[in-house]
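Work package 3, deliverable 3.1, input record:
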Amino acid sequence: GENVEQHPSTLSVQEGDSAVIKCTYSDSASNYFPWYKQELGKRPQLIIDIRSNVGEKKDQRIAVTLNKTAKHFSLHITETQPEDSAVYFCAAGITNYGQNFVFGPGTRLSVLP
Amino acid sequence: NAGVTQTPKFRVLKTGQSMTLLCAQDMNHEYMYWYRQDPGMGLRLIHYSVGEGTTAKGEVPDGYNVSRLKKQNFLLGLESAAPSQTSVYFCASSPPGSSGNTIYFGEGSWLTVV
């Protein structure tokens, strides 16, 4: 089955700097890669996703890149702000089969003022 | 449109007690899921359902049972609670197939077993 690793487990950046979180996956059949943000005590919420026919996707200050050959994908946050502080989860799965999503263990991002 | 609603939000159980977590969604989603979240381990799938009347095991099903008698509801049961089941439980739902795979989560249920 799918195995998703995520690094780093914790990340501290100064406000205004960029943050990068990397995930690797094992199942070459996976073709859907979402990122979820979870603020303290809140539910995880989708912030961006990418499908295997796209190498990069951007939405304002966040972007995700995908390298299917190497089986890794990354989340990039530019111009970080204190409200970006949260736990971020990556996941990998097969489109049409939501129950096959496997989540990474999460990265706790702290944006220091 | 409330999305995904879970009850209760907090519960303390004694070892051996039973309880049911209730999940309701008003988005007419076919798929529903129960996850547990433990520190450093992300979200792990307990059970899921691809439609009314169907259920299937996920990654960590032992000690739990589920039922999906109505499309909008997905119940998670603990027959004999154990301290290892202390966790935060998230219910979620998603539409099937090509209409998208975004998973919508409930607000979570904090369960402590003493």
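The mean pLDDT of chain A is 93.
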